[in-house]
Amino acid sequence: MTTTNRAVSLAAVLALSLGTAACSSSQSPSAGATAAATSTTPAAATPTDAAGILGQARTHALAATSGAFAGAIDQGGTTMKIDFKGTGDGTESEVSLDLGADGMLHLIAVPAGVFMQADPVFWKAQKAPAAVQAAGDKFVKAPASAAGITDGLSLTSFLEKAFAAVSAGKISDQVGEETVDGVDCWVLTDATGGKTEGALYISKDTLELVRFTGSSKAPGQLDFSKWNEDLALAAPPADQVVTVP
Description:
Blueprint: H1 2-21, H2 31-38, H3 50-63, E1 66-75, E2 78-87, E3 93-98, E4 104-110, E5 113-118, H4 120-125, H5 130-133, E6 139-141, H6 155-164, E7 176-180, E8 183-190, E9 194-203, E10 209-213, E11 220-225, E12 241-243
Parallel strand pairs: 6-12
Antiparallel strand pairs: 1-2, 1-11, 2-3, 3-4, 4-5, 5-6, 7-8, 8-9, 9-10, 10-11
Helix pairs in contact: 1-6, 2-3, 3-6
């Protein structure tokens, strides 16, 4: 279970790290710019400057009770696909991962327990016990001793990692505009490479994150949705679950 935990957490963090790569110039932010980007006090009016937009997007994201993101990122020539939805505090989450040559995993974590469904390739790569590998297409309920498997699998923890490396000094002060799936967005880009080195798309109306795109070194895209929605996460049906000692 420890290796599985690392795979899930690492994959999700790697996916969100393309947000870091999206604004990864070597320019150092000024003290004033950093304060603007990390402020948790909403502005009196909707900001239209890059630092203000970034700061408000960060505030909304880290205050969200729930959310979802999905997309793909290239890691060393291998495309990793991820679909995540969960609560800000991590009490409930659902993650689907396609790790390419390392297999596929579907994980559901709710108060009733942690349930994992994976293909033979994934279980073999994790050196899972024979009883787990024999589960077929059913979910395996993690034993109580493996409760820590979802440590760090919270929406807030992922977003904190992504925003930690995205400061006002690393983005262009030129704010673009674009429509993403019908949503009018502000577009923040890398200070030196522009959109080709990454971009953040932020809703004009709500100042919520809509999309991250990656850089030339870490291409990919993540689309965000379901901010503060009831995700209706639940344990799999009992007849689709096997319990391993």
